[in-house]
Structure prediction request, 680 residues.
Amino acid sequence: MIEVKKGMSEKEIEDYVNYVLNQMSLEEKVDQMKGKRFLFKVIQDRGVGKRTYDGAGSRRFNIPSFEFTDGPRGVIIPGSTCFPVSMARGASWDPDLEERIGNVIGRETRAHGGNLYGGVCINLLRHPAWGRAQETYGEDPFLIGEFGAALTRGVQKHNVMATAKHFAANSIEKARFKVNVKIDERTLREVYLPHFKRCVDEGCATIMSAYNKVRGKYCGHNDYLLRDILKGEWGFKGFVHSDWMYGVKDTVGGVTGGLDVEMPRAKYYKYKKIKSALNNGEITEEMIDEAAKRVMRTILKYTTREDPQNYGEDLIGCDEHYKLALEAAERSMVLLKNDSVILPLDKNEIKKLTIFGKYASVKNIGDYGSSAVSVKEVSTPLKGLRKYLGDSIEIVGSNGKDLTLVKELVKEADVSVVIVGLNWRDEGEYIKELRIGGDRDNLSLHDKDIELIKTVASETENCIVVLIGGSAITMEEWKDQVPAILMAWYSGVEGGNALAKILFGEVNPGGKLTFTIPKDPQDLPFFDKNADEIEYGYYHGYTLFDKENYELAFPFGFGLSYTTFSYGNIQVEVNNDRIIGSIEVKNTGDVAGDEVVQLYIGFEKSQIDRPIKLLKGFKRISLEPNETKNVKIEVPTRNLAWYNQESKSWEIEKIEYTLYMGGTSKKEDLQSIQFIIQNK
Ligand code: BGC
Prediction:
């Protein structure tokens, strides 16, 4: 007889699970299909997420339970390291950094006793009003896929199962429990699923189904998504679990749909209900076996692997992890405007600095939904500046409510920093009972913040606006009146320290937007936070703005630096299975800096309706002044394919394509070269 032990091979696990299935009673099998988190435990813990949520497992057969904790901005169990939100990390365009963050999250999950991490949130930002925008990485499926895969890699290195969520088409918050998403096959395949496929290919262990419906069926019951595509076509071997409270609507729907586990506890996957559905012939025993097998196999795969290290409690929120949170905040901030090069500030030229705004000195690290990481001490902008500057510069802070006082303070200062934006009341996971979060009604700042900016700007030429938020903020009412704008995001536990270093040039900002900021929000796709039904079309974000030639405030991929870069000598090479673009990038300024080189493929000669161009590769590089680097980016030829819904297959057009490379998605900022894919 095989026993459960460290270092089991896949074959041994498979044999063991088959043996166990033969021995198990129906009730024992059904035990694998549910979470065990009863309300009294939550009460005992004094709150949701204070400990892991357990589920499945079998003492008789020596199979451990899974122990779930959430994210994505860090492990939600108190004490953990709080990173900048995912949207900020996306703006770093640095998947290696994301993998290192995953590494820390994996370690902290284990140190808390967890082995299942629910924080690989990779839904597409279809519209910036989406309340949970901060939990994902941006509007582009390729970019989201790369980041989701990087986080998965990092977390799973520590034998923690990663959950990619919410499968699928979950991009409206308030209506998430009821909305039906109408979507054609090509849009589903090309726009809303590729990032999930990318994570599955990376080996992500589990998938969380979404609350919403796709084509009339709840995602937790959606056999087309779960059985046909995920488990069938993509060959996913892990298990699917539901989203929390209302992710399963009935026993038969969930089981036939391919949902393996009901979380966080059984309502419809109770033994009695499953048994009666079996007796009525509405579900089959094979379905139960399949679910139980997937769960046990996945748990054993992760819990029997040798660990790369020990996971003592001292790892939780340790200095090394905080250092990474600082690095992430530094690498993710995006400089949107810097007229007459007002930034970076020079310590030696400033005597007095004023800092205004309601987020200057309060903890504002994201929403209070399932991704909230509770930390006692946060580096706020004011704290960060005080720590960085010591006594060298006088800092005067005010919340900015009294505009007469603001004017007086501005006049006395050399420079004024205004910290404004959003918080958990404006955007976040919608929690009805607490009446918090949800989608935004408006993409601009609050009137009071705009008034504050305008007041400060009317008194000084040295007004720097720092924006806090998790998604696009429109700025047309005030952006021309200020010389500098920095998008600082919800920047985690070390955010204020990172901000100070950026404002004073110790760190040169290199982040870039991963979404489009429109001039006119009317140009965005239709969005209704209360929708019962909505159609998700093929175009959104930069593909929509490209196609319709709509005016932009800031394009996807945009971000400034304290230096400048020039591009030249674009080349393309077409091999059997890949296209290699290369370009020379030179730092033409006086300071070292990072540039995010982006590669887009253009489909102008396509025989069908295709986007003008799509992001297919990127690389963040560092350059010293005057240094030139030749940047090579490879695109597998299969990534040029489109989904033909008639033939139900991915096809590569044999046409002339354009390869674009440059530092933003704007055509004028890109160099281009043509290449041909021919019939072999
Ligand atoms: C959220 C999920 C989350 C789960 C457990 C749900 O409300 O939609 O994203 O993983 O709670 O924390």
